[in-house]
Amino acid sequence: MRNETILVKEARGILTVTFNRPKSKNSINGAFLRELNDALDLSLRNSECRMVVLEGQNGVFSTGMDFNDRASGNYDEKLDRLSLVRYMEMLKRFREIPRIVISIVDGQVIAGGVGLVAASDLVIATPRARFGLSEALWGMLPGMLLPFLIRRVGFQKAYSMTLTTMPVSAVEAHSFNLVDEVTETPDQTILQLTQRLIRLEESTIENIKQFFLKLWPITGEFEEMAVAESFRLMNDPKVRENIDNFVRYKKFPWNK
Amino acid sequence: MRNETILVKEARGILTVTFNRPKSKNSINGAFLRELNDALDLSLRNSECRMVVLEGQNGVFSTGMDFNDRASGNYDEKLDRLSLVRYMEMLKRFREIPRIVISIVDGQVIAGGVGLVAASDLVIATPRARFGLSEALWGMLPGMLLPFLIRRVGFQKAYSMTLTTMPVSAVEAHSFNLVDEVTETPDQTILQLTQRLIRLEESTIENIKQFFLKLWPITGEFEEMAVAESFRLMNDPKVRENIDNFVRYKKFPWNK
Amino acid sequence: MRNETILVKEARGILTVTFNRPKSKNSINGAFLRELNDALDLSLRNSECRMVVLEGQNGVFSTGMDFNDRASGNYDEKLDRLSLVRYMEMLKRFREIPRIVISIVDGQVIAGGVGLVAASDLVIATPRARFGLSEALWGMLPGMLLPFLIRRVGFQKAYSMTLTTMPVSAVEAHSFNLVDEVTETPDQTILQLTQRLIRLEESTIENIKQFFLKLWPITGEFEEMAVAESFRLMNDPKVRENIDNFVRYKKFPWNK
Lengths: 256, 256, 256
Description:
The structure is a homotrimer. By secondary structure, chain A is an alpha/beta fold. Chain A is built from nine helices and ten strands.
């Protein structure tokens, strides 16, 4: 498998996916979602695999949706709606796949990138991690990821992160369960977890994940609503202008 | 606007409401709810306004429903049911209004006052803040505010505060998200927030609030049940006696 | 009342139940559930009683379902399904009974024992307490207790405890509300609580508990599903083998 946007390696029951779009700060585009999906497929082909580890590079985990695909020149309405649906499906797949999905966050994670983290089964962060929902500054909202974030951190912290757009440190994120462990040495934490998790049958992981889905369902009705609202806002003229100004002139909406 | 129960000022995108019933420790009566409602209307008339800040005075944020209105001499059953409905509607309005509602708690907040805090979008407290649900001591329960409190702090802390009636310090309240920040200088926190929040469009605040309402709905069915149960308990002969003894003789139910 | 599995005493409005199956580390069997149920009945006969305190002995609170009853020689399918239902009904009864149910955890609590803790109204732990959901290691899952655990600690911590099977210390458990207070002197905490809780009418406790049941219902549909899934897994040939190997040879599933 030859990938453009991620690096994949497999060893001792762990499939590791390293996000690899340094020029666009690991933002999420169609190719990224497709290749990450293929990597999850690959993990299923090895019945010894128990964990899928996601990590960034160079102090960036992920910076959310790629604005270049949304700038006027490149924009394709049909493709865009599809990419929203695919993003939502990726988050759902993390919850369902009979592998334990672990994000290691060392540095920055923004907007849609926070969704990949929130939908992960476990999150390990270094003290350098910072989590921010910047959508509101652009006139949007982090619709599709919110049920996954609320599931992790409860209503209030998801709400205050969305409304204030203020970034949150690793220690704060740990205090309200966005992060399960803060450590300078994520690899050692993974090693400890491995010793425990290789004892689990694949079918047990599947049974547990299916059971929790029943305890905390995310309905198809919600998904449609979230995609529709995200699509509506993304096509708001003001939001389009904000994105265009950023892609063309690196100008932020609040610098008027 | 000439107010009896609150002081209102407006500057730099912030409408500040200072509760001003020192004699009755900022307890909540009909005039207070009416005037607070008017203040929210006022904030809507200024399209530059982004935040509504609520604060107490002299070490008291609010001590909940005014018992004087409930003592036998003054009691009007119809008015009383109406004031329960209006209190519930105030909490709901905080969630819906396209302004960011922030409570600054410096000192005591009890019973229904905790509802104003819990329904706020953001809560800033000084180390002097103390939060208590005293209703059970009088034979009542904090029915209408509980969904707002659970939304903020989860089931267990709302439950233990209700059952034990034990007051909670600012630091404890922060540890379980009843408070978003503890600081000696709430004005500086407001200033920092302002720099961020003035970047948001009014419509973005509205979109976010509407979206979160869908994620965590409070049903009309619940509201009716909560009002009915509060009304039922308030008219329980034992509870009426407790309130009368307090209003007439400053006697607490547990001093027999 | 002559008990085999628990010790019961009553004084000053508190009924104390001490788990007393030292040989099987306070594991839960049919007699235990029956006698605990009788103890709850007893607390209702004393209208002065406000609190039911549950505690272990010798550094063990409870180690969950008794595997001896599930080993092939002793196994009775019908009895087993019944004991699952009775366990679920016990957890539900904690939520409904007009007494404040308090667990004091001094030492180990595992699997189904965590359910007794999670369903308690209040949980006091010493620094020696350790909480673990070991079910997944055996190929099972902690189905029936999860709604009670989620109610206390939110989705994510219930999920990570279930998936990772890693035990959690008292301090950690307190940080995410599985424990309400960590103290070296639980008796003093009980004394403080008593001073507060004897002020509550029995009817007030009942009203509060009924109200919270409406705010956070656990449906009959869920109960049936949880019992069915637990029963299905317990009769999985692999799980039966794991249990048999443990009961006969003290061999754990992960020592192959």
